């Protein structure tokens, strides 16, 4: 027999299982175990450090290009195909620069994959479509490496067309 809210009869007695459930506090959301939370925090901190190290490396390379007479026209330009770290002007032409940062120059260079090169080409094509001369604009693809000590190496024409 069910009891309605407007029913003035005394409430029905609870079954023993219902009494136990009524006496136990409501279930709280289960928190992540401490080890998983610490690992997640460490990953986030490493990601933030890598992001800031990358920004610092790009800023350093940007200043180097400016010092050498190549004005940087765009930094971290993003198109539909991806991002180009730096775009500098070389007279009437453009220099597309991919910046790689790691502990050593060799490790930084090894981080440039064929997939990234294809992405850089596609992004450069998108950017060139915005230029007055379009794909007739002279271009160069450089790779700039920054090691863990902040030293730099710029390899001009490092990325050639396949």
Task: For this entry, give a set of tags.
39% helix, 5 strands, Trna Endonuclease, Chain: A, domain 1, 4 helices, alpha+beta, elongated
Explain this structure to me?
The protein is 39% helix and 22% strand. The chain is an alpha+beta fold and 162 residues long. It has one domain (35-155): Trna Endonuclease, Chain: A, domain 1, CATH 3.40.1350.10. The protein starts with 15 loop residues before the first helix and ends in a 7-residue tail after the last strand. This is UPF0102 protein NTA49_14375. Residues 15-34 are annotated as: Disordered. It holds the Pfam family UPF0102.
Furnish the topology, listing elements before pairings.
Elements: H1 16-23, H2 34-67, E1 72-78, E2 83-90, E3 93-101, H3 105-110, H4 114-128, E4 139-146, E5 152-155
Parallel strand pairs: 3-4
Antiparallel strand pairs: 1-2, 2-3, 4-5
Number of separate helices:
4
Q: Which overall shape is indicated by the principal axes computed on the Cα atoms? A: elongated
Strand order of the largest sheet: 1-2-3-4-5
Q: What's the CATH first level?
A: Alpha Beta
Instruction: Give the number of DSSP strands.
Output: 5
SSE order, one letter for each helix or strand: HHEEEHHEE
How would you classify the helix and strand content by structural class? alpha+beta
Which architecture per CATH?
Answer: 3-Layer(aba) Sandwich
- The third-level CATH topology is Trna Endonuclease, Chain: A, domain 1
Mean pLDDT: 85
- Which regions are unreliable across 5 or more consecutive residues at pLDDT < 50? none
Strand content: 15-25%
Q: Give helix % range.
A: 25-40%
Largest sheet: 5 strands, mixed
How far is the N terminus from the C terminus? 81 Å
| Rg on CA atoms, Å | 30 Å
Number of domains: 1
């Amino acid at each position: 027999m069910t009891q309605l809210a407007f029913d003035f009869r005394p409430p029905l007695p609870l079954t023993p299982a219902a009494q136990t459930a009524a006496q136990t506090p409501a279930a709280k959301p289960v928190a992540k175990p401490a080890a998983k939370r610490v690992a997640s925090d460490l990953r986030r901190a490493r990601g933030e450090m890598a992001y800031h190290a990358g920004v610092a490396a790009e800023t350093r390379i940007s200043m180097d290009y400016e010092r050498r007479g190549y004005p940087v026209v765009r930094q971290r330009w993003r198109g539909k195909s991806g991002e180009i770290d730096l775009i500098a002007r070389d007279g009437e032409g453009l220099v597309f620069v991919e910046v790689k940062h790691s502990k050593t120059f060799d490790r930084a260079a090894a981080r440039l994959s064929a997939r990234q090169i294809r992405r850089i080409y596609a992004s450069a094509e998108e950017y060139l479509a915005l230029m007055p001369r379009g794909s007739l604009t002279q271009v160069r693809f450089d790779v700039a490496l920054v090691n863990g000590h902040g030293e730099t190496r710029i390899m001009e024409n490092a990325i050639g067309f396949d």
